[in-house]
Fold:
Amino acid sequence: MDCRKVSEVVFLYTDNEMDGELLVSFREHVSICPECARRTRYAERLVAIFRQRCIRATAPDRLRQRILTSLPHRRSFE
Ligand SMILES: [Zn+2]
Structure:
């Protein structure tokens, strides 16, 4: 794998959608190339921030639903 290929597939790696030979050669290159190691860490951070924002945006609705459906005496409130 070379640097150009790493930048093409780095988000497969951060999404855990990389396996087999691709994953092996990706890790091999990242372990010997500081530039791609940095690129990979940056991509991981971006994905982590993105996921956190998504969770924060959807949590209130899902939490509310879970509370509503788990209330044992919901009918008495209606
Ligand atoms: Zn590289």
About this structure: The mean pLDDT is 85. Residues 1 and 25 are 6 Å apart (CA to CA). Residues 3, 6, 29, 33, 35-36 surround zinc ion (CB under 6 Å). The longest helix spans residues 34-70.
